[in-house]
Write a structure and sequence with these properties.
The chain is of the alpha/beta class. The protein has 18 helices and 6 strands. Strands 1, 2, 3, 4, 5 and 6 form a 6-stranded mixed β-sheet that branches. Helix 13 runs antiparallel to helix 14.
Length: 402
């Protein structure tokens, strides 16, 4: 069934890098992500998630098709061009249904004024939206730092998004560099704390830093970030993860911190996903599923929530809903590893062993160290009777990844 598109909805596409050297991609994406975060503060405005919105980067898709896939009524797109110490940001707000431009404007500034540029664009967009669909809404301003620290923070944050261990290790170094330049840059403090926890050996993490070390060293970073900015949603989200990693007895504190994060930024996908997981652990399955489905509605390419929703649909034998979600993601990514994994899991649940092995083998080939894929691929091989191959696949399985 077709989904009705809310009029109060928008997707922020990754801004294009039009600089002569083509070396400002992280900077361009950073601006669009900051704008996304600002728009997420507007009550009653549905903002498509970063992972799915940015997936269209480099694709020559029609605006109407993007709006249909992301289920939004408005698209914000733009570009960044730098030259020396000057920057030009072009932003366009478009109605997805007919391609009509609500506004288009260039912003020329010195690089030292980049935060002013972000705030100006956010205000212009809010004015354009207000005239069409919104009431008066306040617009939060960006957290300022030096351009050099900001660039390192942006690149580090982008690499943390990948959940690739090697890139996250490099991101941790970049965040250290940013904090050497500006020790009081609260967003960088929160991201450094997140990197340490994701690179720990906790269940669901991706590295080998002893968990007790990660917890001990990341907590002061979070405390300092919240001291500097008591309204930093990302810091509360990572604090919730810190409590969750600490012990089961800290579940109430984890839930409280994650709810605080979402009260500031309801569209924070990490906070939504971690809260859903924490609630599932507390056997609050109904709210957990609602949160997972809300994340997937805004950001279907966000893999942790996508996988969890697929697994839930499999458990309750709602295969049509699972298939519809997989098709929606496939329209954006094609046969990505995540799509192949989901299809393999569904085939296995339906008893289609040959198809499951074929699909899971392809998913496994993209990342042979992904434990969840190892588990399902090995299980499919075992059920098919190929015990030797199943044992080889399972040999390196240590823990499940979200």
């Amino acid at each position: 069934a077709e989904t009705a598109v809310a009029e109060k909805s928008i997707a922020v596409l990754a801004f294009e890098d039009l600089s002569p050297g083509g070396d400002q991609a992280y900077f361009a994406e950073g601006i669009s992500e900051e704008l996304l975060n600002v728009l997420a503060q507007i009550p009653d405005l549905k903002v498509a998630g970063r992972t799915s919105s940015f997936a269209f980067k480099g694709q020559k898709r029609d605006i109407r098709e993007i709006g249909e896939i992301l289920e939004v009524a408005h698209i914000l797109e733009g570009s960044v061009r730098t030259s020396g110490d000057r920057i030009r940001v072009t932003a366009q707000l478009v109605k997805a249904e007919d391609g009509f431009h609500l506004f288009s404007k260039n912003y020329d500034r010195k690089l030292t004024d980049i935060f002013e540029v972000q705030d100006d664009i956010a205000r212009e967009i809010t004015m354009a939206l207000r005239s069409a669909i919104l009431g008066e809404q306040p617009v939060e301003t960006s957290t300022h730092t030096s351009v050099e620290a900001y660039e390192k923070y942006l690149q580090g944050r982008q690499w943390i998004h990948t959940r690739d261990r090697r890139l996250m290790e490099e991101a941790s170094v970049l965040l250290d560099d940013a904090l050497d330049i500006d020790p009081n840059y609260a967003p960088a403090l929160a991201q450094k704390a997140l990197a340490m926890q994701l690179l720990s050996n906790a269940d669901g993490a991706y590295g080998d830093i002893p968990l007790d070390v990660a917890l001990r060293e990341s907590r002061p970073l979070l405390d300092r970030a919240l001291e500097l900015n008591p309204d930093l949603a990302e810091a509360y989200a990572v604090l919730g993860l810190w409590y969750s990693n600490g012990s089961r007895s800290s579940s109430d504190q984890a839930i409280a911190s994650l709810r605080k994060s979402l009260s500031i930024n309801p569209n924070n996908v990490n906070a939504n996903n971690w809260l859903a997981s924490e609630l599932a652990g507390a056997e609050n399955f109904n709210e957990s599923l609602r949160l997972y489905e809300a994340v997937v509605e805004r950001d279907p390419l966000y893999a942790p929530a996508f996988n969890n929703v697929i697994f839930y649909y499999m458990q309750v034998r709602s295969m049509d809903r699972a298939e519809a979600l997989v098709r929606r993601v496939e329209r954006i990514t094609g046969e990505s590893p995540n799509v192949l994994f989901a299809r393999g899991a569904l085939s296995l649940a339906n008893g289609q062993l040959a198809a499951a092995v074929k699909q899971l083998e392809r998913a496994h080939s993209f990342n042979t160290s992904a434990s969840v894929v190892q588990l399902w691929y090995g299980t499919a091989l075992f059920n098919l009777g190929d015990f030797d191959s199943a044992a080889e696949v399972h040999r390196n399985t240590n823990k499940l990844l979200p």
